[in-house]
Amino acid sequence: MDLTLEPGATALLGPSGAGKSTLLRLLNRLADPDSGAISLHGEDVRSLDPRALRRRACLVPQLPSPLPGTVAYNVRFGPSLVGRSVDPTRPLELAGLSSAYAEREASRLSVGEQQRVMLARALALEPEVLLLDEPTSALDEHTRAGVEATLAELALRTGVSMVVVTHDRGQANRLATRTVNLRDGRIDG
Ligand SMILES: Nc1ncnc2c1ncn2[C@@H]1O[C@H](COP(=O)(O)OP(=O)(O)OP(=O)(O)O)[C@@H](O)[C@H]1O
Ligand SMILES: [Mg+2]
Description:
alpha/beta
């Protein structure tokens, strides 16, 4: 595929197995392509430190994978690696979790709650690009609307760009200005 992701929000749609998650993983070097190249602002991502790249283009994975420990620990962890101390309250609130979650053990939360912890972890890093892999797939309608509102507001306020994988065309339309359809690892139409 030949694809340029512009600033703003892009949705990735396509059937299961189309390569949506793989594309996100390529964008922050959790995987490297066998051939071809990917660049960020014209710079080949292979020339960047993977950890620095992952703070700039931060992936919220399809399956939550919290660190053992409290929710607050999870949110503080990424910034702490670069010597930044964050108050977890704000990122949690943005992700739709009250501060009452801060001291709970992350691995004991429901999948939908863990999804929001993973989003809060990403927001705490203040990335340039959020790579969101089905960020609301485990959420009820009300909570999903809350997370969508947060993402839309965040984009407006901070100018963060987003690549959002979704199976929900409505969500694609609500969140993104452009939709890319994938099928069998290629751009479809
Ligand atoms: N590292 C890898 N090596 C070989 N094949 C892979 C690798 N990672 C993913 N695949 C295959 O690539 C295809 C696309 O997988 P991917 O996870 O990107 O799909 P997806 O579009 O995110 O699907 P879903 O909607 O089910 O999450 C699948 O057939 C998968 O088995
Ligand atoms: Mg996937």
